[in-house]
């Protein structure tokens, strides 16, 4: 009887301890609203939750990259459009200059206009991003891509044509920059179009130079401006294609993230109603066990003697 009593007490103590641990777990779940707070709550679910959380973190990084890159491409697109507008303005000015009926003073004024438009075009190519980096200098984005060389009296390209890339999905990189200055290349000179425009504007502003002497230059530059606009058109197509790709990837990431979120919720979130009922059941069971424990404690050999 003595051994049996000790056994019974041990079983009851173990049961009360087990119930207490379970109640503590359920109360923590209700407090955090999470079913799995430590791996031991559900090892299989905990492993899957960890995997999904890592995937969600990676997706969030991709989405941040896409947002930043899309903004950068939009900035470049706006500046390329500005460059295109300036080229059209230069084209219109050259067409006026090609009219043989212009007086010398008119030609000087048109030459000054070309010079001002050229300066604006250079400023556009030397655009900086919000972070202070030059947009159109390739990977040399801390140096203005177009600079004036006093000795050569010409514009020189100080950037490069290397590309910068951003990772926007697993194994998918999208180029960040475009090669705007290549639209101005002529005759082996990286900035030939700009330098020819500068030379022409100087001639046109010099009253000692006869307009007839540079009429062919005007015609050549009209052809050069047409070629530059073709190059800019190709850049617009390229930028549009990248933006479309980013939109598709952003939508795909959003869909995957939402699906992962639903799975995470199913795995990790606590069912408050079910947990509350379960907690009450364990409370009741503990109370019953405790009452039984008291009854067993009160038993003795004399209870069987009558």
From TrEMBL:
Family, similarity comment: Belongs to the bacterial flagellin family.
Q: Which part of the chain is the Flagellin N-terminal domain?
A: 3-140
An example GO biological process term is: bacterial-type flagellum-dependent cell motility
Q: Where in the cell is it found?
A: Bacterial flagellum; Secreted
Q: What is its main location?
A: other
Q: By its UniProt entry, which PANTHER family does this protein fall under?
A: FLAGELLAR HOOK-ASSOCIATED PROTEIN 3, FLAGELLIN
Q: What is this protein called?
A: Flagellar hook-associated protein 3 FlgL
Ranked from the top, the taxonomy reads:
Bacteria, Pseudomonadati, Pseudomonadota, Gammaproteobacteria, Enterobacterales
| A molecular function GO annotation | structural molecule activity
For this UniProt record, the keywords arranged alphabetically read as follows: Bacterial flagellum, Cell projection, Cilium, Flagellum, Secreted
GO cellular component annotations, sorted alphabetically?
bacterial-type flagellum hook; extracellular region
Which species does this protein come from? Mangrovibacter plantisponsor
Query: Which Pfam families does the protein's record reference?
Result: Flagellin_N
């Amino acid at each position: 009887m003595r051994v049996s009593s000790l056994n019974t007490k041990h079983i009851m103590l173990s049961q009360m301890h087990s119930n207490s641990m379970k109640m503590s777990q359920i109360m923590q779940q209700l407090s955090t609203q999470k079913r799995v707070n430590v791996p031991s709550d559900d090892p299989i679910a905990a492993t899957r939750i960890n995997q999904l959380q890592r995937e969600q973190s990676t997706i969030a990084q991709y989405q941040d990259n896409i947002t930043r890159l899309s903004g950068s491409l939009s900035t470049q697109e706006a500046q390329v459009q500005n460059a295109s507008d300036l080229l059209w303005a230069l084209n219109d000015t050259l067409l006026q200059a090609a009219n043989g009926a212009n007086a010398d003073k008119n030609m000087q004024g048109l030459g000054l206009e070309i010079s001002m438009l050229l300066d604006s075009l250079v400023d556009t190519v030397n655009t900086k991003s919000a972070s202070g980096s030059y947009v159109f200098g390739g990977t040399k984005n801390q140096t203005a891509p177009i600079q004036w060389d006093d000795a050569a009296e010409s514009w020189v390209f100080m950037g490069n044509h290397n590309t910068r890339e951003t990772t926007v999905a697993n194994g998918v990189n999208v180029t960040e920059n475009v090669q705007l200055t290549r639209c101005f290349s002529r005759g082996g000179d990286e900035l030939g179009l700009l330098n020819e425009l500068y030379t022409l504007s100087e001639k046109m502003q010099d009253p000692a130079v006869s307009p007839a002497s540079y009429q062919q230059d005007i015609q050549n530059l009209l052809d050069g401006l047409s070629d530059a606009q073709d190059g800019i058109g190709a850049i617009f197509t390229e930028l549009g294609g990248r933006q479309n790709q980013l939109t598709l990837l952003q939508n795909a990431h959003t869909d995957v993230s939402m699906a992962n979120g639903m799975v995470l919720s199913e795995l990790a979130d606590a069912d408050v109603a079910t947990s509350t009922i379960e907690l009450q059941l364990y409370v009741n069971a503990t109370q019953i066990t405790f009452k039984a424990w008291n009854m067993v404690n009160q038993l003795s050999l004399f209870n069987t003697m009558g």
